[in-house]
Every structure is written in C-alpha cells, then in structure tokens.
Backbone:
C-alpha cells in the first residue's frame, strides 16, 4: 500500500464487488449476443454496463422507445437525449436481473427476427 493511501474495501468487499461486476458483464453478454444474432450494430457492453444499438428499421430513438414499450414491454434510454448524434441509437443497461434480461432479449429477438 502506498504511503497515505487508505484501504477502501476489505478483501471480502473487493470479492463482492468483482462478483457484481461479473454478474452485470454476463447480462451485457446476453444483450450483445442478441444484437449480434440479429445483425444490429451495437457498441459497449464489454467494459461498460451500457449497450448502445442502432435503432432497427430506420427508427429514431423515441420511436424505438415507444415501439419496444408497446410491443414487448422493454424500456431503455433513447439516444436523442444525448444530443443530435444519438437520435438513431438506443441504450440498454446490464444493471438488472439476469432472468429478466434473458426474457427481455428473447422478446426483442422475436420482435426483430428476420
């Protein structure tokens, strides 16, 4: 330990944090794998809990928000809220329950299956 540095987490605390990180990374893989299977361009989900995907079928982000909510009851964040360059992108998060993430992506895949 460096001089002046304080121990923030115990060894047990560090292990618990890593367990949480691994859990959310697993959720991110579920989302990313779904996007890959559907051929939807996406970014993130590797070292970030957020997955940004290009809205399918030429939709803008608020249109995509409404479409997902009405058809499969899945919500996320419209990219338009982050500025002009986000208007055709949508953000999902891996900060959720694994089983619900799997279910949401099964619904998503069924909705956008080619």
Residues:
């Amino acid at each position: 330990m460096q001089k002046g540095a304080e121990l923030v987490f115990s060894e047990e605390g560090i292990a618990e944090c890593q367990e949480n990180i691994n859990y959310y990374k697993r959720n991110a893989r579920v989302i990313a794998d779904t996007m890959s299977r559907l051929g939807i361009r996406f970014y993130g989900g590797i070292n970030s809990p957020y997955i940004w995907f290009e809205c399918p079928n030429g939709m803008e982000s608020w249109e995509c928000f409404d479409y997902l909510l009405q058809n499969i009851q899945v919500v996320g964040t419209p990219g338009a809220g982050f500025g002009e360059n986000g208007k055709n992108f949508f953000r999902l998060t891996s900060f959720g329950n694994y089983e619900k993430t799997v279910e949401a992506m099964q619904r998503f895949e069924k909705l956008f299956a080619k």
Summary: The chain has a mean pLDDT of 93. The CA atoms of residues 20 and 95 lie 10 Å apart. The first strand starts at residue 42 and ends at 44.
